Amino acid sequence: MIGCRQWQPTNHILYHLANGMLCLGLLVPDYNYGALLLHGLMFLGFLLMSIWSWVILCAPDFFSWNFAFLILNGVQTFSLMYSIRPVKFCAELEEVYVSLFLPFRVSRHLYKRLVCPEFCTLMTLHEGEAYATQSVTRTDKLGLLISGVMHAYSNRSLLHTITEKQFIDSPEFESTSTGEEKFQVSIVAAGLCRYIFWPRQSVEYLLIKEPYLACIMKTLIGRDITNKLYALNEKVVRKGRWLTKQEIWVNSMRN
């Protein structure tokens, strides 16, 4: 075995800085932004190595390998930066997210899938315009009132009021499966209303692919139906009697 008879002088400072960056990258702990920091430091390290091998060492083979690693880590870094970029929504959808989905710790990326144009539509109703007409409109959608007030009528008799951040037609959506049934109530805007709705087939397809979101939506819809039944029961109590279990079931199908 032949040892080193003569040591070369210390390399340029760029070489040591580059290796320092690579060392720091390997020491990054495993946490949310760990992969981004790892590839970011690797990118800086191989950038310095490329400069050192091209300008100081003047070795094309060294430069080629370091530059290749520079490109690979650069692609990884920018890909990770793009994937963790903050997700922003318009003011209306932001209010819905904060009020309904943030308390359940639904991520912004998952919520973005729910409210993307592929699955839902934002609409406006003016005073007197109908969201649904009794015995005419099919129950093939799920609506959520973002702002404004709507009234639900059965044979011109006011059943209940729908306020902002409430589902418009949760009982119909939950009690029917095909979407071919007709509304048993009319739902009319009491003023300027903004709402979002999901076609039944679209939202059911999404919820099959996203089981956690399906669980959250089922919880929100169930809570909304319960609140509607309590409001209806309180209305009847003020008239002097309680709803029976049968009446509660019938009304849950109607309103």
Provide an overview of this structure.
Strand 4 and strand 5 (157-162) form a beta hairpin. The radius of gyration is 30 Å and the shape is rod-shaped. It has helices at 13-26, 34-56, 60-83, 91-101, 108-114, 170-175, 200-209, 211-238, 245-254; strands spanning 121-125, 130-132, 141-147, 150-154, 157-162, 166-167, 186-189, 193-199. The strands form 2 sheets. Strands 1-8-3-6 form a 4-stranded antiparallel β-sheet. It has a 4-stranded antiparallel β-sheet with strand order 2-7-4-5. It has 2 domains: 13-84; 91-240, Jelly Rolls (Sandwich). It is an alpha+beta fold and 255 residues long. It has 9 helices and 8 strands. The model is unreliable at 242-250 (pLDDT under 50).
Distance between the termini: 91 Å
Q: Total number of helical segments?
A: 9
Overall geometry comes to: rod-shaped
Share of helix, binned: 40-55%
Order of the strands making up the biggest sheet: 1-8-3-6
Radius of gyration over alpha carbons? 30 Å
Largest sheet entry: 4 strands, antiparallel
**CATH hierarchy: architecture of the largest domain:** Sandwich
Stated plainly, the CATH topology of the largest domain is called Jelly Rolls
Number of domains: 2
Name the CATH homologous superfamily of the largest domain. Answer: Jelly Rolls
Which structural class fits the helix and strand makeup? alpha+beta
User: Which regions contain 5 or more consecutive residues with pLDDT less than 50?
Assistant: 242-250
Range of strand content: 15-25%
According to CATH, what is the class of the largest domain? Mainly Beta
Query: What is the number of strand segments?
Result: 8
Mean pLDDT: 87
Order of helices and strands: HHHHHEEEEEEHEEHHH
Keywords: Membrane, Transmembrane, Transmembrane helix
Protein name: POPDC1-3 domain-containing protein
Main location: membrane
InterPro entries: POPDC1-3, POPDC1-3_dom
